[in-house]
Amino acid sequence: MRTVLLLPFATQSLNRVSSLILSLWAWQGVRPGEPPLDVGSIPWLGHALEFGKDAASFLTRMKEKHGDIFTVLVGGRYVTVLLDPHSYDTVVWEPRTKLDFHAYAVFLMERIFDLQLPHYSPSDEKAKMKPTLLHKDLQALTEAMYTNLRTVLLGDATEAGGGWHEMGLLDFSYNFLLRAGYLTLYGVEALPRTRESWAQDRTHSADVFHTFRQLDLLLPKLARGSLSVGDKDRVCRVKGHLWKLLSPARLAARAHRSKWLESYLLYLEEIGVPEDMQARALVLQLWATQGNMGPAAFWLLLFLLKNPEALAAVRGELEQLLSRTEQTVSQMTTLPQKLLDSMPVLDSVLSESLRLTAAPFITREVMVDLAMPMADGREFSLRRGDRLLLFPFLSPQKDPEIYTDPEVFKYNRFLNSDGSEKKDFYKDGKRLKHYSMPWGAGHNQCLGKAYAISSIKQFVFLVLLHFDLELINPDAEIPEFDLSRYGFGLMQPEHDVPVRYRVRP
Ligand code: HEM
């Protein structure tokens, strides 16, 4: 590990000198074969402030300066950034013994969710949980999700009465998807459902959502360790309430719990996790499984509302599908997978909105000194203890060489002229294996991808068929990304996009 030079410079006037010394030191610190190193001008912190403020702009600037691989100092850590999409495949398929996905997740687990699992093995956990999100368990989740989406969406609307209702579009999408997702994974009040249990599901899931959202809004500060005293009190209160809501004792009374929950609780018991820690683990899982679907659905609906041609194409596709089934939409208690798989226009809209908005950091801990081959034949040395970061949001997702007008939403970008899915995209004249990576790729690709896609599609299906949904200010610009937030560049609630909706007469 390189030693970090701590220089006690306090004044602005010495910054240039410090930068010069650091550059010299940085130059001395690079071994042959390593990527260019940029330690910035602030000792130890390096580029932490710029990175935290707007990672995309910072990394674009670094790419212009150093090319598609470089190492930056960020808060005492050396992070090698790789931005060549042709070279991603090697990284995502490296074994855990060389590039590890979970070390950072464990760190976040402790820092954000106060969770310590002494005999925790990420690979054992993954082996147990993966099957619960596939095949017939996936089908059961998809069916339960449809019922629960109807419970919260249509139930709330019926209770609120006819006529138009107003709310923020992010709040609308996040609220309904998280509540339905929670009921699907963590179980419902009672089976068979009664009018009372149905109402209870809606009230309880709303409590879970509103409490979760308060924590969610403070997560960026919590991860950076920059909470004010008042924020710290809020976080404490909110976490305490969530731990109670998701305590194993409370969950024990719930009906129709998913295989996913049963398997997870069993795993926690097997490794001897006490009940209070189990509740914390269940809060972490609520965030990990539900934190992205609502935001993804928000952007999708927003792009549809801003692009009437796209909205008409999706509506047309859904109406055509329905005309081929024998049931009316209100008679449908599930959406068969075959139907969900026959929506190429909606698939293209989802891919395009994820291309424009999904900005995950794909990070790996470098476990051993490593030679990393690039697709163009170059090879770079990585040092044990450093971190490797891929940021597909910049390339391939926003790369003008791959996508013409990369900032523009084109609903049919992922459609061929014959209506099939378009999968051929090129850079440097070579076809790309990874042309968009909202779900990651390789060994650690999102386990919930299929469930998330079917949930978002079912949500959009129900919203478009049961509701009239309109922007209150149709001419307002699409809101700016808040890139200080990991993931989906979400804005603060006060900048949410106001919409009005009503149940279709
Ligand atoms: C729109 C929704 C979602 C998006 C965009 C998303 C995206 C991602 C990404 C980018 C990764 C990390 C890949 C990496 O670093 O290589 C990931 C991992 C993961 N996701 Fe998702 N995710 C979503 C929903 C879900 C849901 C609903 C579940 C579960 C029900 C889930 C379970 C997981 C798990 C377990 C991992 C870790 C995989 C591992 O340990 O190797 N995700 N997801």
Automatic annotation (TrEMBL):
Record: residues binding heme: C446
Gene Ontology biological-process entries: prostaglandin biosynthetic process
Record-listed E.C. numbers: 5.3.99.4
The protein's role, per its UniProt record: Catalyzes the isomerization of prostaglandin H2 to prostacyclin (= prostaglandin I2).
Protein name listed in UniProt: Prostacyclin synthase
EC class (word): isomerase
Topology versus the membrane: Single-pass membrane protein
Keyword Iron: yes
Family: Belongs to the cytochrome P450 family.
Co-factor requirement: heme
Domain of life: Eukaryota
UniProt-listed Pfam families: p450 (PF00067)
InterPro entries xref list: Cyt_P450 (IPR001128), Cyt_P450_CYP7A1-type (IPR024204), Cyt_P450_E_grp-IV (IPR002403), Cyt_P450_sf (IPR036396), PTGIS (IPR027286)
Binding site for substrate: R111, L117, N292, R387
GO molecular function list: heme binding; hydroperoxy icosatetraenoate dehydratase activity; iron ion binding; monooxygenase activity; oxidoreductase activity, acting on paired donors, with incorporation or reduction of molecular oxygen; prostaglandin-I synthase activity
Keywords: Endoplasmic reticulum, Fatty acid biosynthesis, Fatty acid metabolism, Heme, Iron, Isomerase, Lipid biosynthesis, Lipid metabolism, Lyase, Membrane, Metal-binding, Prostaglandin biosynthesis, Prostaglandin metabolism, Transmembrane, Transmembrane helix
Annotated localization: Endoplasmic reticulum membrane
Catalytic activity field: prostaglandin H2 = prostaglandin I2; a hydroperoxyeicosatetraenoate = an oxoeicosatetraenoate + H2O
Keyword check for ATP-binding: no
Species in which this protein is naturally found: Lynx pardinus
GO CC term, one of those recorded: endoplasmic reticulum membrane
